[in-house]
Amino acid sequence: MTSKISIIGAGNVGSTSAHRIAERGYADVVLLDIVEGLPQGRALDILQSAPVINFNTTITGTSDYKDTAGSEVVIVTAGLFRKPGMTRDQLLAANAEIVSGVIKNVVKYSPECVIIMVSNPLDVMTYLAVKASRFPRHRVVGMSGLLDSARLSTCIASELKALPKDISAWVLGAHGQNMVVIPRLSTVRGKPLTELLPQEAIARLVERTVDGGREIIELLKTGSAFYAPSAGAARMAESIVRDKKETLPCAALLDGEYGIKDSVIGVPVKLGKGGIKQIVEFELSAEEKQLLQNSAESVKKLIKQMGLK
């Protein structure tokens, strides 16, 4: 039986995620949006590429949550996107209301699904999704660390003229200004970044990684990133549906891991059938642990601001 993945939000991130998943052929896709005609049109456009690319999965556009019923994975991209000069935190109130309504409908029609959150501010929206869905924490995961790590990998590849496939980069912590980049955890062909670049060069790459989303927003002027975020969401979905058990940097609700409780931050997680199979704990120094805890505290402040505690 073919798996079913529903994507809530047919904007750039949602529709590009649908496109990537359909072409990979591991699940049928339902693309939902409240804007009548948008998901139907984008789904039809993607479907008409099937004879060219040669994929056999179906993609359905809809504005009715009934069509998402029985999804194995639901990717939530719905919400406002950041505009130039806007922080992720400024999106909090508006997107919290949108996401709460989305999650209610997701749970109604797919009570056994795994939820992948992409809406910003991502860590807080992931926390909201756990609470609103009342799902066990292993069935709600956020796409943040995968995107941030990809941005760091891209910076490293450019700096060292290396192939992306030869780079393993890990970014932990909150998505945004409070992310935690530990250079020694990133390697090029197995060699730590700290052995390949001087500290000032590493600091420059880290700064660009932290500002990666803002850089794209300022360049585009009328939108935000969607190719890389959609790639992250699709890869997470594939690991879950195909039970690949890949270890990826994702946002997860912690309950004592890394000494952190009741906060969502990016950490290494093993993804397979049913969601998070394991939260992997890297060996961190006391200073690195403190940076991670500080990052978790920044998320807790926003959670409290939202009135979830």
List keywords for this structure.
three-stranded antiparallel β-sheet; Rossmann fold; globular; 42% helix; alpha/beta; 309 residues
Number of helical segments with 4 or more residues: 10
User: What's the CATH H-level homologous superfamily of the largest domain?
Assistant: Lactate dehydrogenase/glycoside hydrolase, family 4, C-terminal
SSE arrangement, N to C = EHEHHEEHEHEHEEEEEHHHEEEH
**Rough shape?**
globular
CATH class of the largest domain: Alpha Beta
Identify low-pLDDT runs. none
Strand content: 15-25%
Query: Averaging pLDDT over every residue, what do you get?
Result: 94
Strand neighbour order, sheet with most strands? 3-2-1-4-5-6
CATH fold-level topology of the largest domain: L-2-Hydroxyisocaproate Dehydrogenase, Chain A, domain 2
Q: How many domain units?
A: 2
Structural class: alpha/beta
Main sheet attributes: strand count, strand direction, barrel closure: 6 strands, parallel
Q: How many strands in all?
A: 14
What this model shows, in words?
- The chain is 42% helix and 21% strand.
- It contains ten helices and 14 strands.
- Strand 12 (246-255) and strand 13 form a beta hairpin.
- It is globular, with a radius of gyration of 19 Å.
- Helix 1 packs parallel to helix 2, helix 5 (122-133) crosses helix 10 (286-305) and helix 6 (145-160) packs across helix 7 (199-210).
- The chain has helices at 12-24, 38-47, 50-53, 92-109, 122-133, 145-160, 199-210, 212-220, 227-241, 286-305, and strands at 3-8, 27-32, 59-62, 73-76, 114-117, 140-142, 167-168, 171-173, 179-181, 187-188, 191-192, 246-255, 261-272, 275-279.
- The mean pLDDT is 94.
